Amino acid sequence: MFPIRIDTQYVRGDMPVTRIDPQGAPFTELAAARIQLLAGTGLEAHAYEESEVLLTGVEGEVRVGDPGRGEVALRPGACVMVPRGELFTLANHTGRPATLLAVLSRGDRVDGLPRSRRDPLSEPGRHLQAVA
């Protein structure tokens, strides 16, 4: 098991999704991403054509929707699997920010997500920048 510290600052404007596995990290077939949703915001229906997605609630509550089929509430510790190519939505209907951890199988769209910064004092390939 690799100990990982996560930089929670946005890396590109207001981009709500940031990969937390920097280039050269121990992940080869999987990518990890932190998804942050401010209070009252969401992400429109989208799909990862080449990737399966495992979403885990970290903080707050996010509604994960399957257009036309309904939605589930994702709270801290709860998980939901989104099959490859299936449309899904994310919405934070609460008055507090919410955070999810997404683990995705690799694909072109996933590989294009912005990456978290490395902590220059960490052992190479083992840590990410610490939370300030």
Automatic annotation (TrEMBL):
Residues 111-126 have a biased composition (Basic and acidic residues). Residues 111-132 are annotated as: Disordered. This is AraC family transcriptional regulator.
